From TrEMBL:
The lineage of its organism: Eukaryota, Metazoa, Ecdysozoa, Nematoda, Chromadorea. Residues 136-203 form the Sdz-33 F-box domain. InterPro entries: F-box_Sdz-33 (IPR012885), Zygotic_Embryogenesis-Asso (IPR053222). It holds the Pfam family FBA_2. This is Sdz-33 F-box domain-containing protein.
Length: 281
């Protein structure tokens, strides 16, 4: 289902945070498009009119009709910084997932993080920060899911020390310029107690040797034909792990490393087998 509120330039400029901003004025109508992905001939489009509805009224009205208890995700894209963040917060309330692409304004991006704090699931473009450097204050937050990427370039500028700061449960970094020795060090530090909340870590990699990654780490090689299911917090479907390298922390928690690939990239995955992550087959 797709909802369109502003099809004409009926917004006005007013005084908002950090100067003049586009205000979310009362929409006169909403275009409701209901699509059937299996049969587009059944797609329907209708225009609903409520001249006295505010944006907040519209959302509540549509949520009640379609039995949507809350907004699941909010996307901030290019030019979203033209809007007043206070208006957005008031109209939309909070959500579970936030996607912050390159908004074009670093101050606005920071205001998103402040206004909607705490954020459970966050996907963010590093171009929202000066020199694309993620601040430690973001890395140490207790996200359930954190995904970091950078448009226009393959490598996300995150160091080993920054990786050790991340306090999220499920971590995805688009691509890391990291060596086999540094990954080996990360694993050994995890064994000693670093990243205690981490359940899953994934990143793309280049020029990494599996033997060098596992050097000096007591481990067991699991056959590729042995599949296990891993349920990370907040995800609807479990991960399928085929084979891998099993090892343990000093506290006796088991972890598995899996080296994956597709037609375009190589992936490093580390799974930490907390009791709630184990799916019995």
């Amino acid at each position: 289902m797709n909802l369109t509120f502003y099809r004409e330039p009926d917004m006005y400029w007013g005084l908002g945070a950090y100067g003049r901003k586009k205000k979310l004025t009362a929409a006169k109508s909403a275009l409701v498009e209901v699509r059937n992905p299996d049969n587009h001939s059944e797609d329907t489009t209708s225009e609903w009119k409520k001249s006295d509805y505010t944006m907040k009224d519209w959302l509540k009205h549509l949520q009640d009709i379609f039995d949507i208890p809350q907004i699941e995700d909010i996307w901030f894209k290019e030019n979203s910084s033209e809007f007043d963040i206070g208006d957005i917060k008031e109209a939309l309330g909070n959500a579970t997932e936030f996607y912050i692409e390159n908004t074009g304004c670093m101050i606005f991006s920071q205001m998103i993080l402040e206004k909607f704090f705490p954020i459970e699931s966050l996907t963010i473009n590093t171009r929202n920060f000066r020199d694309s450097k993620i601040p430690p204050s973001l890395l140490i937050q207790n996200h359930t899911y954190l995904s970091i990427y950078k448009t226009g370039e393959n490598v996300v500028p995150i160091t080993l020390n920054q990786l050790l700061l991340i306090n999220s449960k499920d971590i995805n970094v688009e691509s890391l310029q990291i060596t086999s020795k540094q990954i080996n060090e990360f694993i050994k530090l995890w064994q000693q107690g670093s990243n205690p909340r981490m359940e899953h870590l994934r990143f793309k990699y280049y020029n990494i040797e599996e033997d060098d990654v596992m050097k000096g780490i007591k481990h067991e090689v699991i056959p590729y034909n042995q599949r296990r299911l891993f349920q990370s917090t907040g995800l609807a479907e479990p991960y399928e792990i085929d084979g891998g390298f099993d090892f343990y922390s000093m506290n006796g928690v088991k972890a598995t490393i899996e080296f994956n690939w597709d037609w375009y990239s190589f992936y490093f995955d580390m799974f930490v087998w907390f009791d709630h992550c184990v799916v019995e087959s």
